[in-house]
Amino acid sequence: MNYDVFISFKNSDENGRPTQDSVIAGELFKELDEKNIHAFYSNTRLFEFGEAAYKEAIESALDQARVLIVIATDAEYLKSRWVAYERESFHDDILSGRKKNAVIVPYMQNVVGTDVPRSLRGYETFQIGATDVATVVAFVENYLAKSAAKNAAIPSSGEKSLVTGKTVSSYDPAANKEFKRLKIQAKNTRAADMPAIEYVINKLNKTDLRILDAGCAYGYVTHDRFSKLDSAKVLAVDVSDKCLEYAREHNHDDNIFYEKINLEDENFDDELEALMDKHGIQKFDVIFSSLVIHHLKNPNKFLRRARRYLSSDGYIIIRGSDDGSILCCNDDGLIGKVVGMHLSVDGISDRLNGRKIYSQLISSGYKNVKMMSYIKDLSGLNLDERYDVFLERFAYRRNYLKNALDADPYNMEKRNELDAMDYALDKLENKFGDDNFWYCETDFVGIAQKK
Length: 451
Prior knowledge:
Elements: E1 5-8, H1 20-34, E2 39-41, H2 51-64, E3 67-72, H3 81-96, E4 103-108, E5 126-127, H4 133-153, H5 178-188, H6 190-204, E6 210-214, H7 220-226, E7 233-238, H8 241-250, E8 256-260, H9 268-278, E9 284-290, H10 299-307, E10 310-321, E11 327-329, H11 334-344, H12 357-363, E12 366-377, H13 383-393, H14 398-407, H15 412-432, E13 438-450
Parallel strand pairs: 1-2, 1-3, 3-4, 4-5, 6-7, 6-9, 7-8, 9-10
Antiparallel strand pairs: 10-13, 11-13, 12-13
Helix pairs in contact: 1-4, 5-13, 11-15, 14-15
């Protein structure tokens, strides 16, 4: 069995009688079990097989658990050999980074001041008597749910981007404020997409287009760019259920079909072919993907796969961005600090993707590669529009540092980095409201055909 929770308590007093702590531990175990939360509740019968067997069982359960509940009705019980060992081992694993998204939950009575071990200070403490067992279990249940969500958003260790060399992008379109930012981004990048789309449509010179939008998120871009192509059929795909649910409800159209697919899944070909059969599509005339491939572990692999489903005269359109294209004046060095802190963490996307699109297309089996660029800057924008640019291009970058801290919550270096990022972003936001501040950045769009 794998354990979510480890219950630490002193089982018997100096006279060998069960402690009140053991009674409370039993109540906790029963309540957790009813919630289908697997908890390790130490079995002293293991001592019959020797101390080595007992220690081995404890260490295995401590390694697995994400929550350690420490029960104590007496400060002296916290000093007992096994309770102290369990607590300090778990705490050390959190501090060292070996244990991600883990927490200690003290459930105590008559333990105050310096009697509270340093390893328990700073955690939210529940008082026995004032807080019932059900409340503690509800806290644990909520914590485990949030922890599971964070783990889902953060790539597994060892999974590296072939482009950045860092852990693959932890970007989550359903993360904090991304819903609003992606809507702003869809509006601000229209001028970059439309010349490429219009160029391709004119070259194809047909009305019944078949279009794949790879990585559609909430469907803002899909609907805006393609819904007016009445005779076209658009298959828009994404990996996020939350995004697709919103797209189907709010950005639907008779010619747009939103479906779930992971662009890097090993079964990508089978899943895409099944969706094409479902919607009566043999080949795509246009494959469109905006600000997506820089999140992928292996962009070239996706481009090669997508190429198979492009018609002989079809086109692929890829839009990317590049932090190296940023120019600014009177920023007091803030942009360099924000971008530098962003680029320093694991889980980032390829922020230098724009310059690589041409070679990525060539090396993935495409020809007639044409690059278009669109410069967006602050000149002529009103105050609201300037703040929109800040939200689109900078505010989201803190999410990556927040992900890193959530995965290692007691790493003071990561906490300091997030604090520094928040400070720099506050100052930079003020700059975007200053008429004397100027900023520009380039969007890069690659257009190509299959060889």
